[in-house]
Design a protein that fits this description.
Blueprint (H helix, E strand, L loop, with lengths): L22 H5 L1 H14 L21 E9 L4 E10 L1 H7 L1 H9 L5 H18 L5 H11 L21 E4 L2 E4 L5 H7 L2
Parallel strand pairs: 2-3
Antiparallel strand pairs: 1-2, 3-4
């Protein structure tokens, strides 16, 4: 792997059936703290995606732990591959769905969303990489642009809700919601 690696900014959002399932929750805070601190120091306290040292990062002068997954949409398997370290801007760029919800609730100002999107898109454009389609949809909304935001995997077979599971250190964790309706009720 080269450092920094903009490919981290292309990571898709976690599928809805697995919202609320994450390593920190299932493995515990102590496990999470060890893993994220290892990630912070691995690249000398710099963001793995953009390379910015934490002391020069915009918004916060610290790094944030993020999970790198291998997602198989056909089988519903989401396997934890690694814990990575990201600056606040790169982390929010990846979590475009969460950022959109915060924006809608007026908990994240328009200008901050705009700056985070510009930061990530500039990095990806320079690397000639495509962002996750959901991030492009938010870009189009905020920037009044018309980049192609179609889902390239839209026609691929998708696992049923009950099949989705996350694998962390060899153990499977299933959705805490029985279906999309229960999920929607919880996140209203």
């Amino acid at each position: 792997m080269t450092f920094p690696d903009p490919k981290y900014l292309t990571h898709p959002n976690i599928p809805k059936p697995l919202h609320g399932i994450n390593p920190r929750t299932v493995m515990g805070q102590a496990w999470w703290d060890i893993k994220r601190k290892e990630a912070y120091t691995k690249n000398l306290l710099c963001c793995w995606a953009c390379g910015e040292h934490k002391l020069y990062a915009r918004y916060h002068q610290w790094l944030e732990g993020h999970e790198g997954y291998n997602i198989n949409y056909k089988t519903g398997k989401v396997k934890l591959e690694e814990i990575i370290a990201l600056c606040h801007s790169c982390h929010n760029f990846i979590h475009s769905g969460r950022m959109y919800m915060l924006y809608q609730k007026k908990e994240m100002p328009h200008e901050k969303v705009k700056q985070i999107l510009i930061h990530g898109m500039n990095i990806l454009d320079e690397a000639k990489l495509e962002p996750f389609f959901g991030t492009v949809a938010l870009w189009n909304l905020i920037m009044n642009d018309n980049r192609d935001s179609s889902d390239p995997d839209e026609d691929l077979p998708m696992a049923k809700w009950s099949k989705w599971h996350m694998v962390i250190e060899g153990k499977k964790y299933y959705s805490k919601f029985k279906d999309i309706n229960e999920w929607a009720e919880y996140y209203k």
